[in-house]
C-alpha cells in the first residue's frame, strides 16, 4: 500500500486538482484508492461534488476519536473518500499531546487499498505534519513560476525535519510541473532549473494549462468525467502511469 501526501506550502499550485485527478486516474486503472481531504478548506471534498456542510461526520471526527474511518467513507464509483470539514482548522489550536500522530493512530488499521492519497493544507502546520508522519511518500505540485519554485525548498527542508523527528521512512517521490505553457519563457526556465537541481525528482509529464481543469471542480467532476479528451485528462493519465511505475 502506497501512502502519498500531495503537498506544497503555497496555495494555487494545483495540489487539489492533482490529488483528485491522480486518484480518478488510478481508479480508472482499477487500483483501490482512498483519498483523504486533510485541508480545512475542503476543496477536494467540493471537487468530488460534495458539500462539507451536508456531511455529518468528517476526517475531523476521526482524528478526534469520535468516529472510525470506515464510518465516514464516501464511495464514489469505487473511489473512497474521507471528506473534510472546516472544523479541521481547530486542531491547530488544541492542546493535544503528540498531535502530529493523530492521523497515524486513527488509520493504524487501514488496509485493502493500493494507494492512499492525502490532500494537505497549503501550509506546514499540524495537519500537514500529520500527513507526513503517516505517509511513505510526498508528491509536490510545482506551478512553473519563480516564487513557487523558491518556496518549494521550504517544503524540502520540512521533509528533512520530519524524517529526523517523526517518520524516518518518508521521502519526496516526485515533483509535478503544473499550469505549464511551453510558449512562456518563465515556465520553460523554471522547469529547466528544476531538472538541473533535482533531475531525479521531476516527473516527465507536465500538466499543461487547460481551461477544462479549471472548470471541472465547479461541476463536482474529475477531468475524466468533465472532459475526457482534453489535454488535462491526457496529462493526468500519463502522469499517473509514471507514478504507478515510480516505486
Observed structural traits:
247 residues; alpha/beta; Rossmann fold; 40% helix
Write the layout of secondary structure elements.
Blueprint: E1 2-6, H1 15-28, E2 33-37, H2 43-47, H3 59-63, H4 69-72, E3 74-76, E4 79-82, H5 102-106, E5 115-119, H6 126-134, E6 137-143, H7 146-165, E7 171-180, H8 185-197, E8 202-208, H9 211-215, H10 223-226, H11 231-246
Parallel strand pairs: 1-5, 1-6, 2-4, 2-5, 6-7, 7-8
Antiparallel strand pairs: 3-4
Helix pairs in contact: 1-11
Count the strands? 8
Query: Number of DSSP helices?
Result: 11
Strands side by side in the biggest sheet: 3-4-2-5-1-6-7-8
CATH topology: Rossmann fold
Could you spell the SSE succession in H and E letters?
EHEHHHEEHEHEHEHEHHH
- Determine the fraction of residues in helical runs and give it as a percent range: 40-55%
Question: What does the overall shape look like?
Answer: globular
Overall mean confidence score, pLDDT: 92
For the record, the CATH class is Alpha Beta
What does the largest sheet look like?
Answer: 8 strands, mixed
Rg over C-alpha atoms, rounded to the nearest angstrom: 17 Å
CATH architecture classification name: 3-Layer(aba) Sandwich
Distance between the termini: 11 Å
> Which ranges are low-confidence, i.e. pLDDT below 50, for 5 or more consecutive residues?
none
| CATH H-tier superfamily | P-loop containing nucleotide triphosphate hydrolases
Overall tally of structural domains: 1
Alpha-beta classification: alpha/beta
Strand percentage lies at 15-25%
Amino acid at each position: 500500500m502506497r501512502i502519498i501526501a500531495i503537498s506544497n506550502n503555497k496555495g494555487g499550485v494545483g495540489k487539489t486538482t492533482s490529488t483528485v485527478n491522480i486518484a480518478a486516474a488510478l481508479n480508472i486503472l482499477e487500483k483501490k484508492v482512498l483519498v483523504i481531504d486533510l485541508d480545512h478548506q475542503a476543496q477536494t471534498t467540493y471537487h468530488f461534488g460534495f458539500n462539507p456542510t451536508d456531511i455529518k461526520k468528517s476526517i475531523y471526527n476521526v482524528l478526534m476519536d469520535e468516529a472510525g474511518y470506515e464510518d465516514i467513507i464516501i464511495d464514489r464509483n469505487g473511489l473512497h473518500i474521507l471528506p473534510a470539514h472546516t472544523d479541521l482548522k481547530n486542531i491547530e489550536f488544541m492542546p493535544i499531546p503528540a498531535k502530529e500522530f493523530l492521523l497515524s493512530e486513527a488509520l493504524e488499521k487501514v488496509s485493502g487499498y493500493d494507494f492512499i492519497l492525502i490532500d494537505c493544507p497549503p501550509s506546514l502546520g499540524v495537519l500537514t505534519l500529520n500527513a507526513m508522519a503517516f505517509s511513505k511518500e510526498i508528491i509536490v505540485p510545482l506551478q512553473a513560476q519563480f516564487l513557487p519554485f523558491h518556496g518549494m525548498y521550504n517544503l524540502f527542508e520540512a521533509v528533512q525535519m520530519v524524517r529526523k523527528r517523526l517518520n524516518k521512512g518518508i521521502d519526496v517521490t516526485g515533483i509535478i510541473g503544473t499550469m505549464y505553457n511551453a510558449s512562456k519563457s518563465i515556465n520553460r526556465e523554471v522547469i529547466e532549473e528544476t531538472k538541473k537541481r533535482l533531475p531525479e525528482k521531476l516527473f516527465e509529464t507536465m500538466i499543461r494549462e487547460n481551461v477544462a481543469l479549471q472548470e471541472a471542480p465547479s461541476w463536482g467532476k474529475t477531468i475524466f468525467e468533465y472532459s475526457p479528451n482534453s489535454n488535462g485528462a491526457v496529462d493526468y493519465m500519463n502522469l499517473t502511469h509514471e507514478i504507478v511505475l515510480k516505486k
